[in-house]
Amino acid sequence: MQPNKLEEFEEHVEHVDEFEKEPVPSSHLKDWRSFLGMYAGEHAAGTEFVIGPLFLTAGVSAFDLIVGLLIGNFLAVLSWRFLTAEIAVKKRLTLYYQLEKICGKRLVTFYNLANGVLFCFLAGAMVTVSATAVGIPFDMEMPQLTDTMPNGLTWVIVVLVVGAVISIIAARGYDSVSRAANWMSPLIVLAFLACGFVALGQLGVSSFSEFWNIWGSGSEPFPGQIKYTFWHVVIWSWFCNAAMHIGMSDLSVFRYARNASAGWTTAAGMYVGHYIAWIAAALLYAVYLRSPEAQEFLANGQAPSVAPGPLAYNAIGIFGILAVVIAGWTTANPTIYRAGLAFQAIFPKSSTFWMTLLAGGVATVAGLFPAFAMKLLDFVAVYGFVLAPMGAVIVFEYFFADRMGVMQNFAERTGSSFNVAVFLAWAISFGVFYYISASQGVFLSFLTLPAWLSCGVLYLLFSRYQQKATAAA
After folding, report:
1. Are 178 and 38 in contact (CB under 8 A)?
2. Where are the chain's structural domains?
3. Across residues 45-51, what is the average pLDDT?
4. What pTM was estimated for this model as a whole?
5. Which of 26, 38, 86, 57 has the alpha carbon at shortest distance from 337?
């Protein structure tokens, strides 16, 4: 890089202001169109090419998939609109700074680390998805459903290149993330629609009944997968983004919104991405399952690969490769951006730019390991369950603190660095419900809402006791 270009680059880095420790000023607010493009791009994305096929591997029925997704995605939109966006436009703070004011610096540091790392792993799955498309021209061996480790040098090189590009875009700040999504989301949506229609033709579907019969009454799950019912689909699709809506991570996004009605734009992501795109991707996988290669896997008691690149390429050729690459990119961008804000909250003297690059590096390393993408249904359930309850602390304080006589922003007002009430509420809720899942074999997503509600209620009760004890002392 030439000296003058380097100086311009460093000057840009110093002036990337993401308002990490202050409310977003009115001059930087954005209208609903910025969020529409971002959510359409983020959720009509690379992971959709994986999740759609994974529903087939879970033996889901037609009714359970089609109706279950309608309901679950609607509940997710309501969560974003009436919880996340509502609080975001009133406070205009990042999740991390708002938690710091409530929890204290020491406690929130542990949360920010967990939040940032889990978001990096999720972004790593997006990098994996894009890499399966980039590697096609190089005749790269694709990861299998049961793979956990990198399968060759070509895979490693492709993932590193893809991850570097994604990280640099994310590091340039919210404006770059939003612009990238707005530019690319129409192309991605078109690609999913094209894949769906081409797959229907390849499957010989000419009526709604034939479309319905692709899933029919369901089937036995593939080896290593669990059986999904109607309630699995509803609850999983509601809480697959639990960390972002009821977990309040998207406070960091909607703090830029002019008003809370921008929360409705999440429907673009849910019904284009988490509905049309999941079903279209499942159709691609249904085509692949009829191939000799897939039948050989099944005959040997193995689950066929769900690598998105080849699935899209087999349907719409080069356009499919391009769509998978861009879809992974537009999803990883905002995810790495969120992770960068989490790391910046831990190291406040560091710029968001460099912390986002750090997040991108962690995500790229995670992308080398296919397990994060191949076990995406399980991983998404875990990360939502871990992170969502802390969002309940913000929600319950915002709506109920005054009624309960609880002081808001306790840590900021008292100078506490570790709010014991928050820690106990989260630890008890997490521990009890995770134990129930592990010991009784209960689907983890079924316990996300109980853990969230428990954390919010316990936080208010413990806070009342703590604050009365502090006042008495």
Report:
1. yes
2. 26-378
3. 77
4. 0.83
5. 38
